[in-house]
Amino acid sequence: MSHYNHSNPSTFILKGIPGLETSHFWIAFPFCIMYCIALLGNLTILLVIKSEPSLHLPMYYFLCMLAIIDMVLTTTTVPKALSIFWFQSHEICFHCCLVQIFFIHGFSILESGVLLAMAFDRYVAICKPLHYTTILTNSVIAKIGLAILVRGIGMMTPLMCMLGNLHFCGTNIVSHSYCEHMAVAKLACGYIITNNIYGLTVAIVVVFSDCMFIIISYVLILRVVIGLSSKQALLKSFGTCGSHICIILMFFTPALFSFYAERWGQHIPIHLHILIADLYLLVPPMLNPIIYGMKTKQIRERVLRLFCQKGT
To answer: In this protein, which residues make up the domain named G-protein coupled receptors family 1 profile (predicted)?
Structure first.
C-alpha cells in the first residue's frame, strides 16, 4: 500500500474496478468499443448538423452541445481507464486528478443543463409552435448555452478550491477507475464535512431542480398533446419527445445511483458501484447519437445519404 506524509501527493493510484482486477484485460474491450462508437456517433451528429442547412434549428443546436459534452466526458475518463486495464498504468498526478474531477463533474452539470434546455425547446415547439422561431432565436440559444456554462463553472470552482486545500497523509490509493470527488476527498486527513455538504448541495440543486423543471415542461406538453385531434400530429409529438425522454432517463438514473452509492451505499458491492459509475459516463454518450439518429427523420435520412454517397 502506498503512503505519503505531505499535504499534496505527487500522484494517486487508481485501482480500476476493485474485485475485478483479473478481468480488467477483457473488460477493456467492450469499454474501447463503446468509446469508439460514442466518438464516431457524436462526431457524425456534429458533421451532419453542420453540413445540412435544414438542421440549423434550436433543437439541433442543443443536440450539438450535448454531443460535444458527451465527447469530453468520455475522453476525460475512458483513455485513462483503458491504460489501467490494458497497461497497468495506475498512476495519475495530483493536478491531473483535479482536472479530471473538474471535467467529470463540471460537464455532468453542463449535460443536465442542456437536457433541461432541450425540454424547454420541446415545450416551445409543441405548446407555442407559431412563436418557436421568435422565442428561440440564435441570440437566445447562445445566452442559454452561456448560462449553462457559467452555472457549471460557478458550481465547480468552490469544489476545486476545497479539494486543493485538503491535507493528505494516509494512503493515496483511489478505489475507482477515475478521480471522483468523494472517492478522493475520503483519502484526506481530518475534516471533509464541508466537501460532503457542498457536493450534496450541488447535486440536489442541479439534479432535482433540473428534473423538476423537465417534469413541469412535459406535464405542459402532455396537456397540449392529449388535446390534439389529429392522430398523426399526436404520434409526431410523442416521437419528437420520446428520444429526449430516453436520454434523460439514461443520464439521471445511473447518476443518482452512483451519487447514492458513493455516500450511503456501503452495502452495495464495490465492483458493482464502480462498474455502474464507469458505464454512466460511457453508455449515455454512446446511445445518445444512436437514439437521435434513429428517432429523428432528418438526421437519419442525412446520415443514410452521406454513407450512400461514400459507398457509391
So the answer is: 41-292
d(CA 79, CA 92): 12
Percent of residues, the chain, with pLDDT higher than 90:
40
Give the mean pLDDT of 93-102. Answer: 93
Q: Could you give the CA distance from residue 50 to residue 43 in angstroms, rounded to a whole number?
A: 11
28 vs 86: CA distance, rounded Å: 7
The CATH classification number of 11-300 equals 1.20.1070.10
Of 17-21, 111-115, 308-312, least confident by mean pLDDT is 308-312
Task: Tell me the three cell numbers of residue 1.
Answer: 500500500
CA-nearest of 157, 156, 69 to 113 is 69
Axis-axis angle for helices 138-164, 94-127 (nearest 10): 150
Which range, of 68-72, 146-150, 229-233, averages the lowest pLDDT? 229-233
